[in-house]
Amino acid sequence: MTEIRAPMSAPAPPQPLPDALSQPYWDHAAKGELALPRCQACGTWHALPLEFCRKCGGKPSFQVVSGEGEIYSFLIEHHPVAPGFDGLMPYVVAMVSPREAPELRLISRLDGIVPDEVAIGMPVRARFVDHPGGDFKLPVFGPA
Ligand SMILES: [Zn+2]
To answer: How far apart are CA 82 and CA 62, in angstroms?
Structure first.
C-alpha cells in the first residue's frame, strides 16, 4: 500500500507584532516607504518607535526617508537561526546607517549583493519585499 503524503512546506519565518507605537512604521512599509521616528520638537532621529524623545521628552512621529544609506557593519549568515530563511543561505545581515540619520544603525538583510563582495561603507538603498507567511512588507537593502 502506497501512502500519499503532502509535500512538506517550508516553515514561515517569525512575523512582526505591531503595536500602537510601531503601527505607523508598518503602514509606511506597506506602501514601500521607509519611515523612521523623529522628534517633532528637537529633530532627533530614533531607531525605534518611542512614546517620548530620549533627548528632550518631545513627541516623535514617523518621517519618510530616502532609503539610502551605507553599510556600517555586517555578518554573513551560514547557519539557520530562525525558521523560514534556509533557502537564502548564505545571506548577509547588515547594520545600515541611513543617509538622513547616519548616527542610527538599522539592522536588515542585504539582497542582490554577493556576500563576498559586501564592504563596510558600501552605498545601499532599501526596497520592500513580501515577508512569507503574512501580509507584511519588510525592507531589504541592496546596491544603491
Ligand atoms: Zn526631542
So the answer is: 29
Nearest-10 Cα torsion for 61, 62, 65, 68 = 110
CATH number of 66-144: 2.40.50
Mean pLDDT, residues 54-71 taken together: 98
- Every domain of the chain and the residues it spans: 21-65, 66-144
What is the CA(52)–ligand 1 centre distance, in A? 8
Question: What type of residue is 108?
Answer: S
Taking a 5 Å cut-off on Cβ, the residues next to ion ligand 1 are 39, 41-42, 44, 53, 55-56, 58
pLDDT tens string 104-120? 999 999 999 999 999 99
> Which of 17, 29, 93, 107 lies closest to 62, judged by CA?
29
Name residues whose C-beta falls within 8 Å of residue 99's C-beta, 6 or more positions apart in sequence: 65, 66, 68, 69, 70
Q: What is the DSSP secondary-structure string of 68-95?
A: EEEEEEEEEE-S--STT-GGG-SEEEEE
Give 67-107 pLDDT, tens digit per residue.
999 999 999 999 988 888 888 889 999 999 999 999 999 99
Ligand 1 center to residue 55 CA distance, Å? 5
